[in-house]
Amino acid sequence: MAAPREPVGEGAFARRIDPEREPGLSPEQRRFMAQVERAQRQRALQRQLRSRNVLLALGIGVVTAGIYGYTFYSVSQEQFLDELEQEAEAARARAWERQKSAAS
Question: What does the record list as coiled-coil region(s) (predicted)?
Fold first, then answer.
């Protein structure tokens, strides 16, 4: 009887077996294999959730930084416009004074 052919590049340890059809496994071995598979699925789920959490945290950080940046930018623009308005009023007042003195 020939041994089952294994995929190239994989060792015997990487060969996947079906515990229900594998002859010679005791019920205890089958339960242990099922337990190990459940633990592996749980770890994979935890890794997936962890990576999603990291992406969510980065997204929240980017949005927060954007809000702060926009706020600082708009406040600085508001101060600039206030200063510009004060200078324009002072220029109007000087022009008005020159116009009054030229008329008299």
Answer: 74-101
